[in-house]
Every structure is written in structure tokens, then in C-alpha cells.
Write a structure and sequence with these properties.
about 150 residues; extended; 5 helices; about 45% helix; single chain
Length: about 150
């Protein structure tokens, strides 16, 4: 698929003068993504396309991932997915569970672990640089003035 700009589409800023440019091999990363997750031998067997009992192809990996992301991003209930994606409520829930379990398995060692002192020091430095002190342990943002805070939350 080729993306073409039309007059209706607003032009984005693109690269900004003064910022460093980091070359990205988008074609290679796309190929890796497709190879690892959307091929017949994907990382998670649940997301491999199989055949159902009648011999028809089951839902594709693309359909399963899209449904899981849609349910998480928009809070779509599983029973509403049938109308737009033709997937039953139970299959949607199974897909969401498998997707979440897969993400946890893939990233738990790097991202889903307890902070160590090095991590905390890095976060404290970032918070200070951004003038957002006291953010660690303050998920309710009590130390942050929000001028447009909705009245009901004040």
C-alpha cells in the first residue's frame, strides 16, 4: 500500500531543524514484525492461523491482534466486536487474554519488574529536568498543578 498526500491531508511537521536525525529502517522492522508475529510459525501459536473443525480458515493473526487492541484502546466490550469484526464474545475474550499473556511473557523481564536504585535515579533526574518533582509514588499527581483540571476532580 502506498500512501499519497492529497490536498485535503494537512502536511505534518516532519523533521525539525536542530534535532538530530536517527535513520530508521522501516522496511526491515516491518519485515521482522511480520516474520515474528504474523507468519505461520509466529512466536505465539495462538496467533497462528489454523483451520476450524469444518476445514475453513480461522481468524487471521491480524484480526486477533486488531480485536485485542481495539478492546483495550477503546474499551470495546467483547460482545460488540461481533458486529464489526465477526468474532464471538468468547473468542474475543480468549484473544484478549492470549494477547495480554503474550505481552507479559515478552516484556516482563525488561519492563515489568521492580525498580532498582539506578532506575529510580534516572526517573528522578528526568522529573527534575521536566519540573515535575515528587512524581515517584504519586500516581494521583497531588504535587502537580493542573490549570484545566475538571471541576468534579478538584
Amino acid at each position: 500500500m502506498v500512501c499519497q498526500l492529497t490536498e485535503e491531508q494537512p502536511q505534518r511537521g516532519g523533521s525539525i531543524d536542530g534535532r538530530s536525525y536517527k535513520p530508521r529502517n522501516r522496511a526491515m522492522t516491518h519485515a521482522n514484525l511480520m516474520s515474528n508475529y504474523f507468519n505461520p510459525n509466529s512466536v505465539n501459536p495462538y496467533f497462528q492461523q489454523k483451520r476450524d473443525r469444518t476445514g475453513r480458515p480461522s481468524f487471521s493473526p491480524h484480526q486477533k491482534v486488531t480485536v485485542a487492541l481495539r478492546m483495550m484502546a477503546y474499551g470495546s466490550p467483547a460482545d460488540s466486536i461481533d458486529e464489526t469484526h465477526g468474532m464471538s464474545e468468547s473468542t474475543c475474550l480468549d484473544t484478549l487474554q492470549e494477547f495480554c499473556d503474550t505481552i507479559v511473557q515478552l516484556y516482563k523481564d525488561e519492563y515489568l519488574r521492580k525498580l532498582n536504585q539506578k532506575d529510580l535515579n534516572r526517573l528522578f533526574r528526568k522529573a527534575e529536568d521536566r519540573r515535575f518533582p515528587g512524581m515517584i509514588g504519586s500516581l494521583d499527581c497531588m504535587h502537580w498543578d493542573w490549570k484545566n483540571c475538571p471541576t468534579g476532580w478538584q
